[in-house]
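Dig into these lines:

——
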Amino acid sequence: MSLLSRVKTAVLIGVAILAAPVCSAQTAFPRQALCVSCHGAQGKSDIQGIPSLAGQPKLFIENQLVLMREGVREVPAMKGMLDGLTDDEAIAIAKYYAALPLNGIPADKDPQLFAQGEKLAQGMRCGICHLPNYVGRDQIPRLAGQRDDFLLHSLLQFRNGQAIGRDSNMAAAVIGVSDADLAALSYYFARITP
């Protein structure tokens, strides 16, 4: 084999190795283009009201996909997206997003609002279920680094009895909490690095 042939082979092998994660993610679930269009190529959403999925617990993502697929949890933006989704596809999607690191935590930090959110999170004992670093576990979502607009929307839904098909423990946890306090919690969680 000539030197030129060996160099070409080495380059092709290198490209294949570098492309493997992308190719395997694309073939793991053909619906990836649909997921990426809203939730971001690396699982970080840049669209208002759309959650980032990177680093969410695998079981949490699987459960949410099944709940939405079965119509137990209604999310208008997801309507029809999960029609025909198989359990194997749900598992592949969950595994892919759970393995991604979440980047791009907001750098702006209002010290007073952040401190208020931190105090509320400690007082409400959010870390008992979501873990002290708020990364979630099993069927409990990661709050750290999630979009604050999405968190606030979700917390308001829980408080107002509109979180159909979701954990009723959360509804009990936020009963009577003011809009301002829910906003402070959301602001705080969004600015914690997972």
Observations:
- The chain has nine helices and no strands.
- Residues 1-27 have pLDDT under 50 and may be disordered.
